[in-house]
Write a structure and sequence with these properties.
Chain lengths: 112, 116
């Protein structure tokens, strides 16, 4: 089983600046996957980035990067050059080959 | 990429009636479908896991007689909310695993249920 903790209910960032969304996890699975999803007001879940527990390098996808620190059990999402369209809920999630377990989410608001 | 089509997108029903939500995998076979519920400003909570041709596995606290899940084929899983009440009003979303790796999950677009 996994437990995901997101301690930032809300975050503000200025347009074009970088922002880090925090995520820590706890799992009993020897291998696992970590995810970040974006959920706009429409409700759809938009996949952003994935990190495997045995991946040696931090994952990157365009403006998104995942700061994976296995010993600290953290998987923070870094968004570079924030855009107004980045305003949404962001969920960290994990899996050990079963259903995804989600954190409580962080609402990001990008200000012009 | 793998797509799960979820219908309806939104539905309003009267208390006591039943509502069926469908999730279809369009270009792959979904042997397992996960059903989540999300209350406003909260996270996605797993309700149940359905496997094609077998009974669904429900999470603790989820009433299996109220939330009927059927996964009769490799491309269709349905969630029926029976005798709906206002407290069942929520956002329901399905998800399927694609492939065998950790990274293969795809989501339906969700169904916003309002019970009046």
């Amino acid at each position: 089983a996994q437990k995901i903790t997101q301690t930032q209910p809300g975050m503000f960032v200025q347009e074009k600046e970088a922002v880090t969304l925090d995520c820590t996890y706890d799992t009993s699975d020897p291998s696992y996957g970590l995810f970040w999803y974006k959920q706009p007001s429409s409700g759809e879940m938009i996949f952003l980035i994935y990190q495997g527990s045995y991946d040696q390098q931090n994952a990157t996808e365009g403006r998104y990067s995942l700061n994976f620190q296995k010993a600290r059990k953290s998987a923070n999402l870094v968004i570079s050059a924030s855009q107004l369209g980045d305003s949404a809920m962001y969920f960290c999630a994990a899996t050990g080959r079963r259903a995804l377990t989600f954190g409580s989410g962080t609402r990001l608001q990008v200000q012009p | 990429g793998a797509v799960v089509s979820q219908h309806p997108s939104w539905v309003i029903c009267k208390s006591g009636t039943s509502v069926k939500i469908e999730c279809r995998s369009l270009d792959f076979q979904a042997t397992t479908m996960f059903w989540y519920r999300q209350f406003p400003k909260q996270s996605l909570m797993l309700m149940a896991t359905s496997n094609e041709g077998s009974k669904a596995t429900y999470e603790q606290g989820v009433e299996k007689d109220k939330f009927l899940i059927n996964h009769a084929s490799l491309t269709l899983s349905t969630l029926t909310v029976t005798s709906a009440h206002p407290e069942d009003s929520s956002f329901y979303i399905c998800s399927a695993r694609v492939g065998r790796g950790f990274d293969g999950y795809t989501f339906g677009s969700g169904t916003r249920l309002t019970v009046v």
